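G., the chain you wanted modeled:
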Amino acid sequence: MVEAMVRLATTADIPAIRALLEASVRGLNRDLYSPAQLESSLRFVFGVDSQLIADRTYFVIEDEAGLVAAGGWSKRATLYGGDQWKGEDPLLDPARDAARIRAFFVHPRAARRGLGRQLFEVCRDAALADGFRALELGATLPGVVLYEALGFIEVERVEHELPDGVRFPLVKMRRAIP
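Predicted structure as tokens:
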């Protein structure tokens, strides 16, 4: 694992986050999703969630060429999706709800270098410090392997019919924070 500098994302990072997530979705998901599913998911599901940045729970990692990874956690109800996907986003109660692991994207040129794990550890520790004792997420099909390695278990497979009729599968996962 390469230890890289993690920092909080800012609103100035939004264009770079958008470019990163598009490269990640198209580059790392193409073996398990069709081109139509990838493009539809970018249009309707995946995008920047500005609330994560405002809540100071979204992090980025950069190298000399720019952002190579981003991911966060949330104390809000939304499980996945960018601003274009979500509706109301009320706060969760750490005494009864699981914090959300949200919007993890790694640039294909930086894949499998431990950056996702590094972001996860920062998010897990922050959620624990905020009083949460469990984590939930909505994983893309290629992300399931990473999240299983991080101790998550599959709760449910879901398939969304997006506004253009394309069906997009995700996996809901959960784990305790020891």
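Strands lie at 6-8, 58-63, 66-74, 99-106, 134-139, 153-161, 167-176.

Shout if anything looks off.
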